[in-house]
Description:
Largest sheet: 8 strands, antiparallel
Oligomer: single chain
Number of strands: 27
Radius of gyration: 25 Å
Shape: elongated
Structural class: alpha+beta
Number of helices: 8
Distance between the termini: 41 Å
Strand order of the largest sheet: 16-15-14-13-12-19-18-17
Strand content: 35-45%
Amino acid sequence: MNKNKIDERIAGFALGASLCAALTACGGGGSNSSTNSAADTTPTVVTSGTTAIGAPIVGGSVSLKCASGAAASATTAADGTYSVTLKSADYPCIAQVAGGQANGVALASTLHSVAAAPGTTNVTPLTDLIVGVLGNGNALALDSAASSALSSAITANNLASALKKVQTAIATLPGKLTIASGFNPLNSQFSVGDANDALLDQYAAALVAAGLTQADAVSDTASGKAMTQLAYAATAFTTPNLTTIQTGSSVNLDGTFSIAIADPNRGQYVARANLDATGNVTSFTNAGQFTGITSLLGNRIGELCTTGTGAYSSTQHSQYVYASDELTPVTDPTELYGRTFTEFEDCASYGTSQFLANGSFVYTQTGQAPDSPNINFAQAFTTAGYTDNTNNSVQRARAYKYTAANGQTTYVYLVVSTKAGSTTAAINGETDFVLMGVSQ
């Protein structure tokens, strides 16, 4: 997985208040040991799972302390998994992971979890939040809790209640994060690189965008406090091949505005920005890796640029286009026919495009004659996309519409063009690019 400095920040945060609701057993990794009476011949049972913060925690020390007084430990493997053996009567247990590295960066603080029973117990920032709820905002309290206290804290009702609080809390972060239906961070299977692991990436980016530490998140979750003033969700698209990313933004508790993108190919991007009276982004206060932005319809649609060679001798290229979840998807491209759009590439408008009745459209660069009709937009809407033989690329498109309070409807199209056969995320001038059109 390709991670960046947000993983480093997560790794360095005081991640110490939490509960392992165990994401799932993905096989055992590393060595393990346990302490039980030598005379006890009761059959052993296994607790295993994955430790991760979006990247696997490698070489971390996992330890379990149980209500029976038994303890067990293991070292996490390269994929973040671990496995220990205990007795059925030992549970429930408090679990934690310390040390090791995530994406090559040392895990500076401990993450917690719980094992209510044998089976899957994973340790992640989300399970850390659950433990924080059980510990009334301080998961460290369970580390030294007496056996009776562990048994009374780690119950099915308490775990279910804590999970609901976590679901409510993360929905107030940029992107309005949600746990997938049917997935329980306490006991559902996941592995590094899957969709449930991607939520950890989104959480990491959202936390930094909101200006919060993991300790802040634990405290806010336990107390039921929203982690931002307002949170927004959007879908971003990029190369290669219409890569789709759930992203978001927020008005933070301190009044700042932030954008967060967790791109599985390029890493995680966070920027802070200024808004105008209409809600559009006017400039960055901390651009991070971005070099420019086009923000329209109250920041409901936009284009984000990074350093590189773009079209028209631009020194930046358009890397992401995004559409707010408030917009209505257009599934029939004929709705666009006959309309004229202002087109944006590299975070600037260089001309207009007009859709013809046969599904193609004509692009006119400002101050120049119209191009020949090109792009079969209906085909670009398909999974296969439209093959542009001239540029040896494949173009894929999406369209949306937004109806304002005054009843006016604005149409938007988003296009991602990827060089045929491309398997990288590289953007090369006119070959790999994203662009956006807004109806006039």
